[in-house]
Amino acid sequence: RLAPDARLNPHRSLLGTGNYDVNVIMAALQSLELAAVWWDKRRPLERLALGQVLGFILNVPSHVSLGFVALPLRRKHWLAVRQLRGTYYNLDSKLRAPVPIGGEAELRAFLRDFLSQGLCEVFLVVPRAVEETGAWLSPE
């Protein structure tokens, strides 16, 4: 639906390995009355109003491998983080199972670690009403 007249999907890897761009993620969230809000890395993570955020989507550098052989290449990879019963989980599809991150302090440290690597983008998944009011951001 994002490129109905295109012969090749401009939102997907040419190799057909998935790796969709952010437009696909945003369209999927919009269909569920949710939104992806880009996190400005210059803001302190303490300003996140975590009670208003349903989850996180990170775009991070990832090593490329062919089977067991790691190549000296990196490409971007999407991973998700979600809270369940007070514990945040790393839902990276490259992991064998979800990995517990911990509570709010551990989540902020987890996000800070990725953001400090430089080539990382963080998106907050929030209800549309939260996006519209900016309630995902605590006052200074």
Automatic annotation (TrEMBL):
GO molecular function, one term: cysteine-type deubiquitinase activity
Gene3D superfamilies, A to Z: 3.90.70.40
Assigned keywords, A-Z: Cytoplasm, Hydrolase, Protease, Ubl conjugation pathway
Residue ranges occupied by any Josephin domain in the UniProt entry: 1-140
Entry EC no(s): 3.4.19.12
Main location: cytoplasm
Any Pfam family hit: Josephin
Reactions this protein catalyses: Thiol-dependent hydrolysis of ester, thioester, amide, peptide and isopeptide bonds formed by the C-terminal Gly of ubiquitin (a 76-residue protein attached to proteins as an intracellular targeting signal)
Subcellular location: Cytoplasm, Cytosol
One GO cellular component term noted in the UniProt record for this chain: cytosol
GO biological process, one term: protein deubiquitination
InterPro entries: JOSD1/2, Josephin
Enzyme class: hydrolase
Protein role: Cleaves 'Lys-63'-linked poly-ubiquitin chains, and with lesser efficiency 'Lys-48'-linked poly-ubiquitin chains (in vitro). May act as a deubiquitinating enzyme.
Protein name per UniProt: Josephin-2
Species assigned in the record: Syrrhaptes paradoxus (Pallas's sandgrouse)
Gene it is expressed from: Josd2
